[in-house]
Design brief:
Elements: H1 3-16, H2 30-39, H3 44-53, H4 63-70, H5 76-91, E1 98-110, E2 114-125, E3 131-143, E4 146-156, E5 159-162
Antiparallel strand pairs: 1-2, 2-3, 3-4, 4-5
Helix pairs in contact: 4-5
Length: 163
């Protein structure tokens, strides 16, 4: 599918249905984090940054705790799916040596209730120093508690991962 057609399909899917992606460090101080969490109202960029950079879910001791962490950024079906997948990952004995970061982000569409954002994402292997870059497309919806991601698609070196 050509990139323009794919982009249009993503926009149409996002606009006509509400569907709901996450990995430490939201780039803000602990005081700001506590304030945001008490308000529950991240702006669009902080939600996407948290989705990309926050790895605190890996320290969760229960499925419910995973869901609580991920609910800062996600909602709906996507939140439920990611909670389940993340909990399964935590239960497995693994080493994690990568850190992801939000390099840049642009909001492509925002009507105050729904938004579509595109982000440049970097993944750094902390052991080898290898870096990869990809892009993510995020559908966001405004809830009482602030913006939440309900759709995400990632593009990595000719790979497509749609959530």
């Amino acid at each position: 599918m050509k990139p323009l057609k794919l982009f249009l399909v993503i926009i149409l899917v996002f606009l006509f249905m509400n569907v709901s992606v996450s990995v430490e460090g939201t780039g803000i101080s602990e005081t700001e984090e506590a304030l945001y969490m008490s308000l529950g109202k991240y702006d669009q960029k902080e939600v996407v940054r948290g989705c990309v950079e926050d790895q605190s879910w890996m320290k969760s001791k229960s499925r419910e705790e995973v869901r609580l962490v991920l609910s800062r950024y996600f909602e709906g079906y996507l939140l439920e799916d990611l909670t389940e997948q993340s909990w399964k990952f935590i239960e497995q004995p693994t080493d994690w040596y990568c850190q992801s970061r939000l390099v840049d982000m642009v909001v492509l569409y925002d009507d105050g209730k729904r938004a579509l954002a595109e982000a440049l994402i970097g993944i750094d292997d902390l052991e080898t120093g290898h870096n990869e870059f990809g892009r993510g497309v995020f559908g966001l919806v405004r809830k009482e508690e602030g913006w939440r991601i309900n759709y995400a698609a990632f593009y990595w070196q000719n790979k497509y991962n749609d959530r």
